[in-house]
Amino acid sequence: MIFKSREAFIPYSRQEIIDLCLADGKLAIAEQQDFREFCEILIAYYHFKLHRSLETLKSNFFPLNPDVSLPQSGKLLDSDGLEQQKDELIATFTAILQQANYFPLPKRELQKALQEDSVFDLKTNVNFDAFERMLCYCRGDDSTSIPLKKWGFKTVNQKVEIYQRVVLLIEFKAEQHYKGKPTAENELSFKPGKFYLYLYKNLSKLDLEFIFPNIEMSMNWKDRLLFGVPAIGAAIPLILKTLPQLILVVGVLLYFVLGHQPINELQVKEEDIRNIAPLIITILSLTIALGGFAFRQYTNYKNKQIKFQKNVTETLFYRNIANNSGVFKYLIDAAEEEECKEIILVYYHLLTSKNNLTPPQLDNLIESWMLDRFGTVIDFDIEKTLGNLSEIKINLTEEQNHCYSKKQKAILKRDRYNRCHVLPLKQAKQVLDCVWDRLFEYS
After folding, report:
1. Is 205 helix (H, G, I), strand (E, B) or coil?
2. Beta strands in 219-257 (DSSP E)
3. Residues 102, 166: contact at Cβ < 8 Å?
4. pLDDT digit string (tens) for 82-91?
5. Taking burial as the number of CB atoms within 10 A of a residue's CB, which of 32, 312, 372, 415 is the most buried?
6. Which residues, at least 6 apart from 367, have a Cβ–Cβ distance to it below 8 Å?
7. Given pLDDT bands bounded at 50, 70 and 90, which one contains residue 108?
8. DSSP bridge pairs for 138
9. What is the pTM of this model?
10. Whole-number Cα distances in Å, 63 to 147, 170, 173
């Protein structure tokens, strides 16, 4: 069973997956405790394994962290060393995201969010040219209903497509890029050459641009119409009403600049021109009237912009999960959860199956089991999980070989027909225990 439009993400916790397997009724009561212990040591093993990845991420991120203000941060590396550290950070970070079953969001999706109408009804722009690197990963393609005001007073529930989790990593270009730019370097709201990481929950697909720190907001076509059309409509009657006075104004200017001849052509009396006090009043009245109206319209727009900025700030505040180095800890935990859940499902179904299964058969069995038992549709990543499980093995020495019939003991193996086999629970626990004991062998 293939669900190409679905995700590999399993929407249950590790403990729930264990309980679901035990509630399935295929394990004997005597085996249930062994199964729990197998899961317990598996979780401990992956916790340690991914802790190494966390330390690697933290080490590579340290000189690139905008929150670190130590004067020597990043000074011990030359440019080549720093670039290598950046590449290692990106590689490790991408691997963790994939382990946590996040999928990359193409740049065209972000462009679509900029072009289409936003929940906040503002025209937005993000300068992607300011980024040296950018990664955006998501998980949990879902929908929800949010309350929106219609016609200014009526509240309606609108269905909005969302991502349950969104991760953004950006590297701003180095200081040289901003030299000579309109915005001085000391006025930037970010540190050039540094990495910024953000993790958000339940974000609308049309508002993904709001998570970028360099977003710019401006009038959309509705605001421009509300600002321009009334101003033009008010200006035309005023201009028509004061047209004779405007002719006098033109006559005054020509009188002072060119002399008497053009006045005759405009058929303006010289005595009217000499009495310029009413003309000055007319000019001031027209300017004040039009300027006051334009200022009022612009103030209305600015108030609207402030209101939307407040809504955006509040939304991101309540939906923000972590920033910068805090993102690593959250994602490491998510990757640990997903890896363990996948291995537990594979091991359980191979253990309880009456027949040996090929990878496609096992993949179909797990997806059907999740759908039939719990109504959950997933696209299980079988090859990745089989690879992870087959890596849990021990190489036996001659002294240890008396316990086993082979020199290598692996929890999962495949036969020549590509059918998968797993060790019984007690032997699988022994292999995991042996792997755990050999994590450090300094002697």
Report:
1. helix
2. none
3. no
4. 889 999 999 9
5. 312
6. 1, 3, 377, 378, 379, 380
7. confident
8. 103, 166
9. 0.76
10. 43, 15, 15
Residue 178: Cβ within 10 Å count: 17
Strands across the sheet containing 320-323:
103-104, 131-150, 154-172, 195-204, 320-323
Q: What is the DSSP letter of 176?
A: G
The CA-atom distances, in angstroms, between 428 and each of 41, 234, 254, 273, 409 are 10, 83, 101, 106, 9
Q: Between helices 29-61 and 425-437, what is the axis angle to 10°?
A: 30
Tokens of 432: 């995991």
Q: How many residues does the chain have?
A: 443
Among 130-134, 309-313, 329-333, name the one with the lowest average pLDDT.
309-313
Q: Is 364 helix (H, G, I), strand (E, B) or coil?
A: helix
Least trusted range by pLDDT, from 55-69, 162-176, 376-390, 403-417: 403-417
Residue 367 belongs to what H/E stretch?
helix 359-374
Measured between alpha carbons, how far is 62 from 86 in angstroms, rounded to an integer?
11
Largest CA distance in the chain: 125
CB 86 within 8 A of CB 65: no
Q: Pick from 426, 431, 422, 427: which is nearest to 396 by CA?
A: 431
pLDDT band at 196; cut points 50, 70, 90: very high
For 154, phi then psi, to 5°, come to -90, 130
Pairing of strands 103-104, 393-395: unpaired
SS3 172: strand
Rounded-to-integer distance, Cα 322 and Cα 335, Å: 16
Coil, strand or helix at 179: coil
Question: Which of 308, 64, 328, 80 has its CA nearest to residue 210?
Answer: 308
- 238-273: per-residue pLDDT in tens? 566 656 656 666 666 665 566 555 555 555 555 554
What is the torsional sign of CA 224, 227, 230, 236? negative
CA-based angle 383:377:53, to the nearest 5?
A: 45
Q: What are phi and psi of 104, to 5 degrees?
A: -70, 140
3-state secondary structure of 166: strand
What Rg value do the Cα atoms of the chain yield, rounded?
34
Contact predicate 249/297, CB 8 Å: no
**Block residue for tokens 């008396």:** 402
Q: Report CA-CA distances (Å) from 280 to 275, 284, 285.
A: 10, 6, 9
Q: Rounded CA gap, 183 and 169, in Å?
A: 23
Q: Which helix (H) or strand (E) holds 93?
A: helix 79-99
Closest to 38 measured CA to CA, from 440, 422, 441:
422
The DSSP code sequence of 402-429 is GGSSSSEEESEEE-TT--EEE--HHHHH
